[in-house]
Amino acid sequence: MYMQVRAENEESNDDVFGSNIEFLTEKKEMERRYDEFKARLEKLSANASGSVSRDHEPIIETLKYNMKVRAGKGFSLKELKATGIAKKLTPTTGISVDHRHRNSSLEGFQTNVQRLKTYKAKLVIFSRRACKVKVVDSSLEELATATQVMGHFLLIVHKKPTIELVKVLEYMKSFRTYDKLR
After folding, report:
1. Does residue 74 contact residue 58 with C-beta atoms inside 8 Å?
2. Residues 6+ apart with CB under 8 A from 49
3. Contact present, 72 and 59 (Cβ < 8 Å)
């Protein structure tokens, strides 16, 4: 009786979980898809005309971590307007835009505008068709001398604060800070 119940339970488990053959075929299919995905990624990275890097990201000062500088998600719309770059042109030139980004300080705004201007000066835009040249496209001289830049070219420089060393004088030694604070 016990053996019959156990055999019935094993059969019902196969119905719930499926057989091993189905599991193995699904696993092979997943591995094949993953291999195809990796091959596509390698092909795209090998044939990419430009490297997608975070060199042209805005600089943001973090309030949380001692005002350290880091790369942001995208430039604000005001920064784009100050440099004269159209919002619709940004996806084609590789500039990321964050419409939620607000400029908290004038210094941060000016540094980001300067970063955009240097990126725009180094950027060479090829026309889609040779017969139709648009205003935003680069000139023929720039196109002839254009070279592909791989890697980083607009790095974020972390400035270290300078500390002045002061010689301890006699009146500083005699000053009683604890008494003064009480």
Report:
1. yes
2. 148
3. yes
147, 89, 140: which is closest to 122 by C-alpha?
A: 147
81-92 pLDDT per residue, tens:
999 988 888 887
As a whole number of angstroms, the distance between CA 83 and CA 114 comes to 8
Amino acid code (one letter) for 34? Y
Distance CA 56, CA 153 (A): 9
Instruction: State the Cα–Cα distance between residues 70 and 68, nearest whole angstrom.
Output: 7
**Radius of gyration of the chain from its Cα atoms, rounded to whole angstroms:** 31
pTM of the model: 0.54
Q: Which amino acid is at 19?
A: S
d(CA 126, CA 4): 77
